[in-house]
């Protein structure tokens, strides 16, 4: 935990120093092309906008996860393709905190309005993943979205029973559901409405487990907010 905090702090300081030394960032966060000082180049802005139009019907849907009886409300900005996918991957694997800042306003826009007592949280990443990557991309994104919405961001979920847990990748929807069962615990009783932020939703197994955990903790209203949604092959 301490190591994680130090790494995050170092990264923030690093980004701050970079901003001081190179105030006019000229590289697009998404494609790496010339952006003339903006985080995104004009092409990527247009592509993301177009992708958003295409994804529009799916931006708010009742996700019927495999094996889950209750649907949940999921809001996603884009399908997990092209520039949107690239942005999410930058956030996840390249520790590109600017990517969170680029994605957050899009996400905030589709979840409004929110009652002022809403708390923003995230599905805690498995501790060994955080150790490996030195960073919890879910937390980074949740904090950016909360800042955008002017709402508090707080860890409400902890990962438990992870010893038996297999990586979700490559598992079928049904196996994913079984795999994540009882792997989250709430950190406190939850009486406020919650927005659960994640980068991408695939089968919804992890999100559903988090929603159920929050509901068991007393949460009256949970909405899931993701940057992208992937369709399982
Ligand atoms: Zn670009």
Overview of the molecule:
By secondary structure, this protein is of the alpha/beta class. It has a single domain, classed as 3-Layer(aba) Sandwich (Rossmann fold), CATH 3.40.50. The chain contains eight helices and seven strands; from the N terminus they run ααββααβααβαββαβ. It has helices at residues 2-21, 42-55, 82-93, 97-111, 127-133, 137-149, 173-180, 205-216, and strands spanning 60-63, 72-79, 119-122, 157-159, 184-186, 194-201, 222-229. Strands 1-2-7-6-3 form a five-stranded mixed sheet. Strands 4-5 form a two-stranded antiparallel ribbon. Strand 6 (194-201), helix 8 and strand 7 (222-229) form a beta-alpha-beta unit. The protein is globular. The N and C termini lie far apart (36 Å). The mean pLDDT is 83. Bound molecules: zinc ion. Zinc ion (ZN) binds at residues 28, 30-31, 33, 40-41, 43-44.
Looking at this protein, list some descriptive labels.
two-stranded antiparallel ribbon, 7 strands, five-stranded mixed sheet, 43% helix, 233 residues, alpha/beta, Rossmann fold
Strand order of the largest sheet: 1-2-7-6-3
Structural class: alpha/beta
Number of domains: 1
Elements, N to C (H/E): HHEEHHEHHEHEEHE
Q: How many distinct helices?
A: 8
Described by the principal axes of the CA atoms, the overall outline is: globular
CATH class: Alpha Beta
Q: What is the averaged pLDDT score? A: 83
User: What is the rounded distance between the termini?
Assistant: 36 Å
Low-confidence stretches: none
What portion of residues belong to β-strands? Answer: 15-25%
Overall helicity: 40-55%
What is the CATH architecture annotation?
3-Layer(aba) Sandwich
Give the cofactors and ligands: zinc ion
Radius of gyration from CA coordinates = 17 Å
Reported by name, the CATH topology is Rossmann fold
């Amino acid at each position: 935990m301490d190591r994680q905090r130090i790494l995050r702090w170092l990264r923030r300081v690093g980004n701050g120093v970079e901003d001081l030394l190179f105030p006019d960032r000229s590289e697009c966060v998404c494609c790496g092309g010339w952006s003339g000082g903006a985080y995104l180049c004009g092409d990527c802005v247009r592509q993301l906008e177009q992708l958003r139009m295409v994804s529009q019907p799916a931006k708010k849907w009742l996700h019927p996860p495999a094996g889950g009886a209750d649907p949940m409300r999921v809001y996603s900005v884009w399908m997990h393709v092209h520039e949107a996918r690239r942005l999410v991957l930058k956030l996840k694997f390249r520790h590109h905190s600017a990517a969170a800042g680029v994605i957050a306003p899009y996400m905030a826009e589709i979840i409004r309005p929110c009652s002022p007592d809403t708390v923003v949280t995230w599905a805690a990443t498995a501790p060994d993943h955080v150790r490996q990557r030195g960073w919890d991309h879910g937390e980074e994104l949740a904090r950016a979205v909360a800042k955008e919405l002017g709402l508090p961001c707080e860890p409400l979920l902890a990962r438990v029973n992870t010893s038996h847990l297999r990586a979700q990748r490559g598992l079928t929807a049904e196996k994913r559901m079984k795999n994540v069962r009882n792997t989250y615990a709430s950190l406190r009783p939850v009486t406020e409405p919650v927005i659960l932020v994640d980068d991408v939703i695939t089968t919804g197994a992890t999100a559903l487990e988090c929603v159920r955990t929050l509901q068991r903790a007393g949460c009256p209203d949970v909405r899931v907010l993701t940057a992208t949604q992937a369709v399982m092959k």
